[in-house]
Amino acid sequence: MKKIGLLLRVDKFGKYKETRDNIDTRFIYLFQKLNFEPILIPTSIKNIELFIAKMSLDGIILSPGGNPLKNDIRKKNEFKIIKYCIKKKIPILGICRGAQIINLYFKGTLKKVKNHVRKNHQIFGNIIKNKKIKVNSYHDLGFDKKMLGRNLIVNAFSKDQVIECFSHKKFNILGLMWHPERNKKINLFDINIIKSFF
Description:
Strand content: 25-35%
Distance between the termini: 11 Å
Structural class: alpha/beta
Shape: globular
Number of strands: 13
Number of helices: 5
Order of helices and strands: EEEHEHEHEHEEEEEEEH
Strand order of the largest sheet: 4-1-5-6-13-12-11-8-9
């Protein structure tokens, strides 16, 4: 069973604005469906590279949720993770915010996009095999081909040319702008993409 690290997200809760690491429990269902062992990675851990090294991970998922433009401990550690994984040849999958962070790491940019929050839309590109594929969408920040980071390749895009999936020319890095974990049933298309990547 492959051990896949999942970076937790940071949220503030309650009257006293407690800062907590958390993750959507639907990710655990997704991991079970893919026959992966989930290793949860705390966001604010000091030496995140050492933590990853000790876990002997087969890959890492940069989780969705939160503002990727905010320069906080989470973003700082996401950048550290990307740098470390490139060095150690550990595959990285970025989902939604995770994909946005990867794009920013490689000097890409983001912009406000319309009609990408709580919408399903068809995608086009080289990952589509002779059938119509619709994906969910929960992001108000996106990017087109001109805004894509260095050495990143477009694999899929929506009708309005917003990139929905990309990969790196050299490194084992993949970005998905949709949420496989939020589907009521994990579909075969998502299973095939993620399993073939890891």
